[in-house]
TrEMBL record:
Protein family membership: Belongs to the ABC transporter superfamily.
Origin species: Rhodoplanes azumiensis
Coiled-coil ranges per UniProt: none
UniProt entry tagged with the keyword Cytoplasm: no
Top-level taxonomy: Bacteria, Pseudomonadati, Pseudomonadota, Alphaproteobacteria, Hyphomicrobiales
Protein name per UniProt: ABC transporter ATP-binding protein
Keywords: ATP-binding, Nucleotide-binding, Transport
Length: 302
């Protein structure tokens, strides 16, 4: 069994690529319906997904197909209408309560009046399991170091670039020392080069900490470079049409982009994506009716 490195060990200079021997996230037959103006729309249909502990997987598919919805199910923010999901053997809501899940979204959503350090410490200082402030700030500083942002610890979000703000958001999620990091297009708003730098930084963090990472991305390059498996989704309703294992060396760096295997994986993924765009909807997406307005039947938590 792969043990999760404690916060104090993140400075280990020898990266150890994690293995995916143990199952960490298991979803079976996950469907999600949303109700809108009396019509029920099935957004996810019977999704089966398995993510190994310490693995790095991506979800990719047409815009609006349901990638974020699946991530919300994994995060415990949304209860599926049908099917089961567990994270580390627990219901995701329970796993989230126990700080086992960290979330990073496309927008960093930092508190503008708090410094980078205070923002990174924020989640540790709220809720039922609040950490004493000095301990929280120490942990947050260690995470800012990990994302190479310690020099900006005392800056306000308005004094940081988009990439730096996103690094604070990653540090904030990591400060909880979650087992699982769920990331929804975290680099979507950044320029290509910053995006590549952030990707390499994320891989470094993954290698050092052994977290299980699930990434939603629209970028073929990013999915191939970062992932061990890429789940390709089709739309209306969303289902996984293929899981593509990425046959690249465990340790990846700039030179990985030049490998023939990289180009092959990229080409295969591009073809799968074209296929996923062409997949016909399963019948009508409306599977019933409801008197409710725009609300998830599945019981969305915010
Ligand atoms: N709370 C909600 N109520 C009703 N419909 C919703 C809700 N959340 C998402 N949807 C619908 O579910 C579908 C999937 O949305 P989702 O955000 O999961 O897609 P996505 O693949 O992440 O999209 P993108 O790639 O554009 O970010 C869309 O049709 C969206 O309109």
């Amino acid at each position: 069994m792969l043990s999760i490195a404690p916060v104090s060990s993140v400075a280990d200079p020898t990266p150890k690529p994690p293995t995916a021997a143990e199952v960490h996230i298991v979803g079976r037959g996950i469907s999600v319906d949303f109700a809108h103006d009396g019509v029920v729309q099935r957004v996810l249909a019977g999704i089966d997904i398995t993510v190994g502990r310490g693995s790095f997987v991506s979800l990719i598919g047409p815009s609006g197909c349901g990638k974020s919805t699946l991530l919300k199910v994994m995060a415990g923010l949304l209860t599926p209408s049908e099917g089961t999901i567990s994270v580390g053997g627990l219901a995701p809501g329970e796993a989230a309560k126990r700080h086992m899940i960290g979330l990073v979204f496309q927008e960093a959503t930092l508190l503008p009046w708090k410094t980078a350090l205070e923002n990174a410490a924020f989640l540790l200082t709220v809720g039922g399991r609040a950490t004493p402030k000095d301990v929280a700030l120490d942990k947050a500083m260690a995470m800012l170091r990990l994302v190479k942002l310690e020099a900006a610890a005392n800056k306000l979000p308005s004094q940081l670039s988009g990439g730096m703000r996103q690094r604070v958001a990653i540090a904030r999620a990591l400060a909880l020392d979650p087992e699982v990091l769920l990331m929804d297009e975290p680099f979507g708003a950044l320029d290509a080069i910053t995006r590549e730098e952030m990707s390499r930084g994320l891989l470094d963090i993954w290698e050092r900490t052994g977290k299980t990472i699930v990434l939603v991305t629209h970028s073929i390059d990013e999915a191939v470079f970062l992932s061990r498996d890429v789940h390709v989704m089709a739309t209306n309703p969303a289902r996984i049409i293929e899981t593509l294992p990425i046959a690249l060396p465990a340790h990846r760096d700039e030179e990985t982009f030049d490998l023939p295997a990289f180009a092959q994986a990229e080409s295969r993924l591009r073809h799968l994506l074209i296929q996923s765009h062409a997949v016909q909807p399963i019948g009508a997406s409306s599977v019933g009716s409801s008197a409710a307005g725009m609300q998830p039947r599945a019981g969305e938590r915010r």
